[in-house]
Model the fold of this input.
Amino acid sequence: MAVTKIDPSEIPEKRQFWGRPVSEETLAIRALQPGEAIKFPCRWKHHHGNCSGYVAAYSTAAKAGFKLTGRCRDGVVYVMRLPETS
Done:
């Protein structure tokens, strides 16, 4: 691979969290607006009935400063950002 000079604007945006790539699900959850909902395939193991995908979504929302509701059913994780309340 040849070394080429580039403009600083050509550098891709950072997409890592603690050294790991940020998942597409996490990026989509961060971009949710109040009242919007998304679904994505569940690729996580369920431990004692808890879906790690939903737990990760809930944690992502908490870190971003909003709340969501959701569930995992039949291999699909559904999440919806709750409207802001005062």
